[in-house]
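Help wanted!
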Amino acid sequence: MKANVRPSRIAVHIALILYTILAIGPIVLILINAFKTRRAIFADPLGFPDARTFTTIGFDRVFSNSDFGLYFFNSFTVTIVSLGLIILIGAMAAWALTEYRFWGNTLLSLYLAIGIMVPIRLGSVSILQMMVELNLVNTLTALILVYVAQGLPLAILILGEFIQQIPKDLRDAARCDGVSEYRIFGSIILPLIRPAIATVAVFTMVPIWNDLWFPLILAPGDGKQTVTLGVQQFIGQYVTDWNAVLASLTLAIAPILVLYLLFSRYLVRGLTAGAVK
Amino acid sequence: MSDIAASGVPVESTAQRSRFPVHILVFLAPALVIYTAFSIYPLIDTIRLSLYAGDETGARYFVGLGNFTTLLTDPVWADQFWNALRNNLIFFAIHMVVQNGIGLGLAMLLSLPHLTGGSVYRTLLFLPTMLSVVIIGFIWQLILNPLWGIAETLLQAIGLGSLFGPWLGQESTALLTVSLISVWQFVGIPMMLIYAALINIPDDLLDAATVDGAGPFSVFWFVRLPLILPTLGVVSILTFVANFNAFDLIYAIKGALAGPNFSTDILGTFFYRTFFGYQLQMGSPTMGATVATAMLVIILIGVLIYLFGVQRRLQRHTF
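Answered by r_m:
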């Protein structure tokens, strides 16, 4: 049996390595070609850029022909503000639903769970109408409001499960000392749920940063484009300029790539810890 | 919109204001207000709008289920709707078989005991899932572009060069190609969920089966598979909801017209065209709402089948 293990293990690694190449090869291909001259992109697409073929002309064109810096700023603002609101508001609701027994508690939890299964996108006709009435079309506020509504259900579910595991003694002791419910939440609970916040952040940020639908519908112009929409519009215009197209794709990938490689352990932990059951 | 918010908490706060603690309201109110106003109310209002029709002056009048009759029977609409629904079912079937099949396979390999480099594989294999669907769409559009020819070169290297064609441009292969691009991107989700389920199976169970003489195949079929069935159920319903709500990839690669000749049109792109219009056809909010409501019904049917059919039976299986 022992002798059997080694060759089969090698086969497992070969299979995994082959699939890994398939999974990240296309992304690497884009990244390396973004730094090559047009001729090298076509003559030797698989080669890494060297002294002869290296160029940043694509990036220069992206920055001179589009407002990429602004798109980044927009995406960044929308993502961070939405995330902050989702965590704060979501933690408050999760705390109320798990800590206090009151009439309608279960019903309310079910009501909030609807948003996990039913995509908010299907309400777009009415959302757009509402944003027109509120004069919020082409503002980042419109996107933030929608993303907060979209992110809350899952955040409340994850945070609620986490809050349940916090020992009761802490809050009971505080209550005996006459500390108000608001302070118990602010000074005891919020600091304790930090690990869950990381999980919520990863689950919430990525769909917001990557979304095309709502920027396309609610904020398609007036310098309010997010990176995803900005790239989509830019590539539509410069479709034959391979340097610029590859550079814009690289710019869109880079921040997520860096964040992911930094925080992947939180995500893997979140996915594998039974947060999604 | 406030009437919905009121059905939750404030009802009793007026009835028994003295007894219902104010701080609970304070904690719940922001989440309930935003969620109700920008998620639940728009969904309900969309259903309401689907029962109305508008004319050139902007006036709206009640037509009952008239829009749905139009959508399902009027040749102008019905052909597109059934085509999009059929394509969407194919899109879903490909995900169920290929995406979840590969995901299961990878999860099995990754959950082998003492696998060297397991976390590196997991991190890299999950990477495409993190990127924007739009970016993924453009990346594959470039790679499959016959002008660049890189896909053809690579296929020739393994002796399959003759298979290459303008897959995204041909009516017969476009939908399959787009589906496989989506599979390629999202295979990480079933992989991770199934992997988590597999490593949570107690070793004792597997050991006991092996001691009793079960081979690796029997251990998988009779011990591990039944134990991860609930996870496979979750993966299926997540795939279903995501697929019947998909839009970005096809819009990025093929545009709102989902060509060639609507061969990649799914409900998401059909909804977008109906709502916003395209080329010479004007968009219609009420017909858009009708398509959205139809999608909502389809998704709800899927969720209900899962909740009352699949999930209940699976739980009985596992205990």
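OP: Thanks! One thing I noticed: Chain A has 13 helices and no strands.
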